[in-house]
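[retry 2/3] tRNA-specific 2-thiouridylase MnmA: previous attempt timed out, resubmitting with same input.
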Amino acid sequence: MSKGRVLCAMSGGVDSSVSAALLKEQGYEVIGAMMRFWPDNKRTDTFDSCCSPDAAYEARRVADQVGVPFYLLDYRDEFKRNIMDPFIADYAAGRTPNPCVNCNTKVKFDALVKKARMLGCEYVATGHYVKRVDREDGPNGEKRVEFHRGDDPRKDQTYFLWGTPRDALAHIIFPVGEMEKPRVRELAEQHGLITAQKPESQNICFVPGTVKEFVSEFIPQKGGPIAEIRTGEVVGEHLGTQFYTLGQKKGLGLFKTHEVRFVVHLDPDTNTVWVGDYEDCQWHGLKARSANYLLDLASLPRELDVQVRYRATPVRARVVQADEAGFELEFYEPQFAVAPGQSVVLYDGPRLLGGGLIEDHSRMLPALRWPKKRAPLTLSR
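[retry 2/3] tRNA-specific 2-thiouridylase MnmA: success.
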């Protein structure tokens, strides 16, 4: 007897390929599906890793090997509206976005879960390294589902899933979430899957070359001043605020090249890049917007672990304030170069609790002080 119908999201990579094979072995009725993101007029150097026409071909071949049907689902409009357009808008506003978080939040675990229900599927499965934990210890014995860090700390992907709609948790499963990557490749070899040795994709799927090159196609390049955050002294010229990130210290174009400065604030409204010393780039806390919680807000711990970027070591923080819209945290130890637009993700040990988008500090900025022998640049307004 079937354990239920599951829509397995297949990217053409080894993790989702093994997920489909395992689900079939475990007795699920599996439907393979890939979300089409690339446009008809896609550039030859974009969408060439995951989510590409070649990847779709490989995913279809894996579905044939496993013996499950495969469908290519059209999500081009959703991807442009929810991923690509906000990506450009964030850089224009001086933020550093994470498109993979948006993709999981608004497309894979929202739109795709809804599509799965329309197809009569009880579950959506993905190849994420995330552990699903089922509990039956609610006040009245009710069941609940938690997401926990994957068992392979090098591959844990819970950071990207904080925005998952809470009502979708029970409908998502992760067949490889409790495995390490070498074991996944071993299983792929055992099943004879064509993706067994396929290398991992590391780049943003829709960005050819560098992010700087991509962003420059959409946001006009306009030079402006680089100024000291404490004094307002103009100490250099930049090429456009969209080309800089918090914490950056190389390639700043300072007049005095021997000085060590870090980007501490980006102000597109005045077209100014503000720099300072290491201490100026330390964050003692943060505010987050667009919050999403995977538990009742009243149950949110007052002290928890937070992660402010993927690959960052979790740090301890105190919840100063939290509501449905956002929250404020105070770090026990200052954190360097916390980037507005990135995600701050909340944990209780291994359990994923939710997260939000980091807001910039509100600052009292000094007036610009220009060098005596250098004419002021024209600022955008």
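[retry 2/3] tRNA-specific 2-thiouridylase MnmA: The chain has two domains: 5-190, 220-381.
[retry 2/3] clearing retry counter.
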